[in-house]
Design a protein that fits this description.
Its main location: membrane. This is Ion transport domain-containing protein. The chain is mainly alpha-helical and 151 residues long. It has one domain. It contains six helices and two strands, in the order αααββααα. The longest helix has 27 residues. It is elongated, with a radius of gyration of 22 Å. The N and C termini lie far apart (75 Å).
């Protein structure tokens, strides 16, 4: 208990040791964790974090909606985009394709190098694994499956 009516402010949330270590390294180099370098965004940028939350929410929404749509969809094929389901799929594909492009402009954290802002290294790191996962998940498998019912 504080004495003489003194208030002690507690932090709203504790930061992990890895986040604190990253912030200390960045401060030693002269910039903070949310700063970007040129056209490369920091992975700690607040707008990028909001984008990631939106992507996660959209992925969870589509994970819940897609099986229902696939079970009850009529085989109209890939065209026209004139109903709710097709428009949602079009928006989702566009969002995740944009996310794939955005990932070429977001720095990544390397355990040995710290935050890497070099575009070539970012591209190589993305192509090693996550690019292929993103590509497979962005392909409109549902539309292809529905179009397959026509055959």
């Amino acid at each position: 208990m504080p004495d003489d009516g003194e208030l002690v402010q507690q932090p709203l949330r504790a930061k992990s040791s890895s986040v604190l270590a990253t912030e200390r390294l960045l401060a030693a180099k002269g910039f903070n964790a949310a700063q970007s370098k040129g056209q490369i965004l920091s992975p700690h940028n607040k707008y990028y974090k909001q984008w990631c939350l939106g992507a996660a929410a959209l992925a969870m929404l589509m994970a819940a909606i897609d099986p229902i749509h696939l079970a009850f969809a009529t085989p109209d094929g890939l065209y026209p985009y004139n109903d709710f389901w097709a428009i949602m799929e079009y928006i989702t594909m566009t969002f995740f394709a944009t996310d794939m492009v955005l990932k070429f402009f977001v720095a990544y954290i390397d355990p040995k190098l710290g935050i890497v802002y070099e575009p070539k290294l970012i591209a190589l790191n993305y192509f090693r694994f996550l690019f292929w996962v993103d590509l497979v998940t962005t392909i409109p498998i549902e539309s292809i499956a529905i179009a397959g019912k026509l055959l």
